[in-house]
Amino acid sequence: MFNLKEIxxxxxxxxxxxxxxxxxxxxxxxxxELLKKGFIKSKVLKANLEKNYFIEIKKSNNFLSKYEVxxxxxxxxIKSIFVQTNLKDYITSLTGFNYHINFFIAYRTAHIxxxxxxxxxxxxxxxxxxxxxKNTLKVIIPLEKIDLENGPMEILDxxxxxxxxxxxxxxxxxxxxKKNDIFLFLPNxxxxxxxxxxxxxxxxxxxxxxxxxxxxxYSEYLFDRQLNLEPKFPMFDLKDRRILI
Length: 245
Prior knowledge:
The protein is of the alpha+beta class. The protein has one domain: Sandwich (Jelly Rolls), CATH 2.60.120. Helices cover about 20% and strands about 25% of the residues. It has six helices and twelve strands. The radius of gyration is 17 Å and the shape is globular. The model has no long low-confidence stretch (mean pLDDT about 95).
């Protein structure tokens, strides 16, 4: 099917990926589970998240609410997840890149009624994140245990994503796990969608967007961005002020 948006985004995707591969990749790495499938759940590392990071919750619509992390707690939040757990070194060993964290969101999703399930409520329809490079990485961490009834995120591996057909039965992977489990995935290469929790159930998690960079860092504007829409086209975000990790 002709998709004008996808055609227009392809030059950005290809050029940004090439630039990152040339200027930011520290070393070539062997094909591993993340690069082969496009996603991985860490079998060893766990985050160290506590509820006291998340002070307020603001409703975006009837089905999505966002937690807010106070500005003075963000450095500690980043350190507890990416440094104290050795997650940043683990990620670099898998991809060969250092990364800049330019966005995060902590949120809760609720049940979507049957008559709205095909509407775009909170990324609940199949999609890839097109305005990013192939190297953009997302980190997902449950804030509470996520089972099938909580509407876990659904994802297709890289090969399935290339052959996707709505009429076929999909062998999808579900991001189910305990609090502080760590999931990594490549959103530009893997089709994914948010699952809808069962009635009276919800799903709580935090997501970080990571883009290749010279050194590990995070955006000074994480606090201001957390309640807004996810920023696109990170290669053009030249005004972003970076804090080294």
